[in-house]
Write a structure and sequence with these properties.
The complex is a heterodimer of chains A (343) and B (291). Chain A has helices at residues 2-39, 41-67, 75-93, 97-119, 124-140, 146-149, 166-189, 191-201, 203-208, 213-239, 249-262, 267-289, 300-321, 325-339; strands at residues 155-156, 241-242. Chain A is mainly α. Chain A has a two-stranded antiparallel sheet with strand order 1-2. Chain B has a domain at 5-96 and 174-259: Rossmann fold, CATH 3.40.50. In chain B, strand 9 (224-229) and strand 10 form a beta hairpin. Classes of the chains: A mainly alpha (343), B alpha/beta (291).
Chain lengths: 343, 291
């Protein structure tokens, strides 16, 4: 009897201790992650903004590809339209930043909804081709519409006084990222998440359960476009100038790849991989060029073409060894951190 | 007083290219009945189900449900009116757990919009807890508690089949359409299933339309039977009459059996055209092996 009580007490203490330990670790990790923002000055604040914007784009693609099982190779169009709309709202109409961002998000959503309506009639490879064609067409038409985008010179998107500091702007980007993460979490935890899982796996089964499969696919496109447009608006104000060349097909490809490398349907994986891919081209060339020993035949110009190569290698490694991406690799750790020992 | 017709099908015709899958098929199911749909393989039974649920668009004919023409409604709208079905190759979503599958099936009565859920509005949290509790009850009724948190993709056939049935019931249907509920069952388990179906019918005021090869089960549980052959209605009637019908025996066994003797009561069963695999179905709370 006594032993039983003692064992029980010990288990209880251990569990409480475990909870404390987990909370401590999570807080420590968050503190570690915020170090660059606190200590890194404006350079790192800029980089963190970029990482957060990429993470929002990654979550946008995750909504479409991870949740609804559709693919988009034309995401640069949604992000670009969001960016140009936000810039247009800021300079030509003079709307406050919040309204500009909302306008960008809505523009991205409307565009994605239109593409979605066309894309619903096709699946798989043909869907990829439709979105690819749309993205490429948007680049040469909408983005070259001088009145709207400023043509080759680009459109300016100045920040308001309060956000002129890079650190303040990084906080705004992180705040928006937090909102998107929250929405994604609630989406998958409620009926829409289960419905999307059914639509992704078997539309016939989904429809006999009363789920409007067409509606959900269209909603996934629209939501994805909303997040993409929002990220585009943030990007416009981050860079303070938007140019058509910022939204070429290559970036859309990198966005899809980073989402897959991060792991579809893994919020943490997508955020980490997006941040990594956002920072790689900014930090790697300088880092390598700064090393004391330079290998022969390599110079800074080569270092600048290295990141895409690394991206491809990472994709191959992920596809071959962990189809669930970074999220799959991290799952044991995240499971322990969120739920303790039990599954 | 005659009970009212819950489902009425008039002149259903379905063609795939040159193949006439269903030919002028008419049938009706009254409220509270258990109706069987039998016939050899390839007779068009599952195609008929697909037409009724709106997955196939038949070239001709009309479907009335609960007195209203639903012929032109998409599948999900028909489901919302109270048509639920199970699948021959199982209607479970493999990447979800058993509980999540049941909660998925509760989609129509979640009681909040998808948007409200995404925004995390206050009411949705509470409703989610209620749904989970209801799902747990359904899971328990079907004896699936031991595997409630397992992904269905990792479970054996019989358990997944039970989960499919649990899902169909979780939609809170008026009409339950079962596609070979006894396939993969031993004869004794099939008869237990018959008792379960009747209990469900009485407790939940269900109407059941089922495709079944297992004739003793059909004879035991069905109030009325339609026999399909080559997409046409061969005959219809009470199960006792059907079992003695020479054309039915001929359709199942080929021409030679037509002149066979009158079958003795319950010893003779019409063999299924193909032998279904033997897997245990644990509809009555048995053990599951892979818990």
């Amino acid at each position: 009897m006594a032993t039983a009580t003692m064992t029980f007490a010990r288990v209880k203490v251990q569990r409480r201790f475990g909870l404390l330990l987990r909370v401590t670790i999570i807080v420590a990790l968050l503190a570690l992650a915020s170090l660059p923002l606190v200590l890194g000055g404006d350079v790192w604040a800029q980089r963190i903004s970029r990482a957060a914007i990429y993470a929002i784009i990654g979550l946008s693609i995750n909504t479409l590809t991870g949740h609804a099982g559709q693919i988009s190779l034309g995401h640069q169009a949604f992000v670009g339209i969001g960016a140009f709309t936000a810039a247009f709202a800021a300079t030509r109409i003079g709307l406050p930043l919040g309204f500009g961002l909302a306008a960008g998000a809505l523009a991205g959503m409307a565009t994605a909804a239109i593409v979605g309506m066309v894309a619903l009639r096709v699946t798989g490879l043909y869907l990829a081709l439709v979105t690819l064609a749309f993205g490429l067409t948007a680049e040469t038409t909408i983005f070259n519409w001088r009145e709207f985008t400023g043509g080759g010179a680009g459109a300016f998107a100045p920040r308001p006084e309060i956000l002129s500091g890079d650190r303040a702007f990084a906080l705004l980007c992180l705040g928006v990222l937090a909102l998107v993460l929250y929405a994604d979490w609630r989406l998958v935890s409620t009926k829409a998440g289960r419905a999307l899982a059914a639509v992704r796996n078997d539309e016939r089964i989904a429809s006999t359960l009363g789920i409007n499969t067409t509606g959900y696919k269209l909603a996934a496109f629209s939501l994805s476009g909303l997040a993409a447009g929002l990220a585009g608006g943030l990007f416009a104000h981050w860079n303070q100038i938007v140019q058509a060349m910022d939204f070429e097909f290559q970036v859309a490809l990198v966005w899809v790849l980073m989402t897959v490398v991060g792991g579809l349907r893994s919020r943490l994986g997508v955020v980490l991989a997006s941040a990594f891919f956002a920072l790689l081209p900014l930090t790697l060339p300088n880092f390598l060029a700064g090393l004391p020993w330079q290998p022969p035949f390599l110079n800074e110009a080569v270092y600048h073409v290295l990141p895409p190569f690394i991206v491809v290698v990472m994709l191959l490694v992920v596809l071959r060894f962990f189809p669930g991406g970074l999220g799959q690799l991290l799952r044991p750790a995240t499971r322990w951190l969120t739920k303790g020992g039990k599954r | 007083m005659k009970r009212h017709q819950l489902l009425k099908v008039e002149g259903l015709s379905l063609r795939f290219g040159g193949l006439q899958v269903l030919n002028d098929l008419s049938l009706s199911v009254r409220e509270g009945q258990i109706v069987g749909l039998i016939g050899p393989n390839g007779a068009g039974k599952t195609s008929c189900f697909n037409c009724l649920t709106g997955i196939y668009q038949p070239q001709g004919g009309r479907v009335f449900f609960d007195g209203k023409d639903v012929s032109h409604l998409p599948t999900h709208r028909r489901a919302r009116r109270g048509i639920a079905r199970t699948w021959q190759n199982l209607g479970v979503i493999d990447s979800l757990t058993v509980t999540e599958n049941v909660m998925l099936a509760q989609y129509q009565r979640a009681g909040y919009s998808a948007m409200a859920g995404m925004l995390g509005l206050a009411g949705t949290w509470h409703r989610e807890r209620e749904l989970r509790r209801d799902a747990a009850e359904i899971v328990e009724y079907f004896g699936l508690e031991a595997v409630a948190d397992e992904r269905t993709g990792e479970l054996p056939y019989g358990v997944r089949k039970t989960c499919d049935m649990a899902m169909a019931l979780a939609t809170d249907p008026k009409l339950l359409m079962l596609d070979e509920p006894a396939s993969g069952l031993s004869p004794e388990e099939a008869l237990t299933l018959g008792a379960t179906l009747r209990e469900l019918r009485d407790r939940l005021r269900l109407t059941i339309l089922m495709i079944e090869h297992h004739v003793p089960l059909v004879a035991e549980v069905c109030d009325y039977v339609y026999v399909l052959n080559f997409g046409k209605l061969l005959t219809e009637g009470e199960p006792e009459a059907i079992q003695r019908h020479p054309e039915v025996i001929a359709a199942y066994l080929g021409g030679a059996a037509a002149e066979a003797d009158e079958p003795d009561d319950d010893t003779v069963t019409l063999p299924a055209a193909s032998e279904p695999p033997k897997w245990p179905l644990t509809a009555e709370g048995g053990s599951h092996g892979t818990a």
